[in-house]
Specification:
Elements: E1 22-29, H1 33-44, E2 47-52, E3 61-68, E4 71-78, H2 84-92, E5 95-102, H3 106-115, E6 120-129, E7 132-140, E8 146-151, E9 164-165, E10 177-186, H4 192-201, E11 206-211, E12 222-229, E13 236-243, H5 250-258, E14 262-270, H6 273-282, H7 298-302, H8 309-315, E15 318-322, E16 325-331, E17 342-349, H9 359-372
Parallel strand pairs: 1-4, 5-8, 10-13, 14-17
Antiparallel strand pairs: 1-5, 2-3, 2-9, 3-4, 6-7, 7-8, 10-14, 11-12, 12-13, 15-16, 16-17
Bound molecules: fe (ii) ion.
């Protein structure tokens, strides 16, 4: 997937009843949106885009929109207790609420998905202001996570009606993050296949890759995963479920602390992972570390790579290959105190896969952290 994908016209065939143009935004419900926005600007290099709150006529919440290239995050917090956002944060902690998908026609997206069994979250809703109109609709997915379909072809404002442009004197330089590569959901025992079926039946996605517990197991724990992709491949949702192991699966730890199913990680694409991870580390973002022995036979495993080995080793960046090329990737530590949501930084050089060759090293690194928390 190139960085140009979001604005290109999707190659829709007659069978794609839900043509998607890419991820429109990811909305996080957080305990303190003002501080979260500062964190994403300072640590990750996002820019201020838009604001909504009492000053724009929204009385129950505040939202900050930040952006880096084609990556848009919305950080939302409730202004009082006893509402759905406050309940969400009380139960789950900070986490992903909305995986918003850009469509040409939000009414059609709603009609097509709800008639196929999608549970309504938001009926088609038209929002207007002096910059035009945005049409939103939405359906529920795993846990309390939702997909909102965003039609914004007739809108020229900063984000959408209800928001005002947010101008700030504080504009930290970006870190080279480009767009959402994929978003992973963690679901409960025996729930992977039902959710695979949901994405197939309700959204017309295809299962493009599957990993069983033999692929993804360490000495102690295991998980299973299936990767779902929409027709043009712009939107990919791997679904994980725990598998039996000697000890507790990392997916179980997530389910315990998130108190249910939810988004485990959002993978953010870069065109220069060494530069991006160096910048993120300099700004305080913490990443998982693999043992340095990982690099001893790396080139034997993956063949020639364009990058120097030394900086990869220094930063702990992992490399894997498939038939079409290779990829470089790294997982952050959880980005809140609960061991739930984290980010992956990924650079694809031809490879369309998800780093199966790195799963063991990555998950062992994850388990060391899990063990340190007393949750293994
Ligand atoms: Fe991933």
């Amino acid at each position: 997937m190139s960085t140009e994908t979001l604005n290109k016209t999707a190659h829709t065939s007659t069978t794609d009843f839900l043509p998607l143009q890419g991820t429109d935004y990811v909305e996080f419900y957080v305990g303190n949106a003002k501080q979260a926005a500062h964190f994403y600007k300072t640590a990750f290099g996002f820019q201020s885009v838009a604001y909504s709150g009492p000053e724009t006529g929204v009385k129950d919440r505040v939202s900050y929109v930040v952006r880096q290239n084609k990556l848009t995050f919305v950080l939302t917090t409730p202004l009082r207790g006893k509402n759905m956002i406050a309940d969400h944060i009380y139960k789950h902690g900070d986490g992903v609420k909305v995986l918003a998908l850009r469509v040409d026609d939000a009414r059609s997206a709603y009609q097509e998905t709800t008639t196929r069994g999608g549970k309504s979250y938001m009926e088609p809703t038209v929002l207007k202001d002096e910059f035009g109109e945005v049409v939103l609709s939405g359906i529920h997915t795993y846990g309390e996570t939702v997909h909102v379909f965003v039609e914004r072809k007739n809108y020229s404002g900063a984000f959408m009606p209800g928001f005002k442009k947010w101008e700030s004197h504080y504009n930290p330089v970006d870190t080279g993050l480009l767009y959402v590569d994929h978003c992973v959901g963690n679901v409960g025992w025996n729930q992977m296949n039902p959710w695979v079926k949901f994405y197939e039946d309700v959204m017309g996605f295809k299962n493009i890759l599957s990993f069983d517990d033999n692929d993804i197991s360490t000495e102690y724990s295991a998980l299973m995963s299936k990767v779902m992709s929409n027709g043009n491949g712009y939107v990919k949702f791997p679904i994980n479920e725990p598998a039996e192991g000697k000890k507790k699966s990392q997916v179980e730890e997530y389910l315990d602390f998130y108190d249910g199913e939810g988004c485990q990680h959002v993978a953010l694409a870069t065109a220069d992972i060494v530069k991006t991870v160096t910048a993120l580390r300099d700004r305080g973002v913490e990443f998982l570390r693999v043992p340095s022995s990982y690099y001893d036979d790396l080139l034997d495993r993956v063949g020639h790579i364009d990058e120097d080995l030394e900086p990869l080793k220094e930063l702990g960046i992992l490399v894997d290959k498939d038939d079409e090329g290779y990829l470089l990737q790294l997982f952050s530590k959880p980005i809140q105190d609960r061991p739930t949501l984290f980010f992956e930084i990924i650079q694809r050089k031809g490879a369309k896969s998800f780093g199966k060759g790195n799963f063991k090293a990555l998950f062992e690194a994850l388990e060391r952290e899990q063990d340190a928390r007393g949750n293994l």
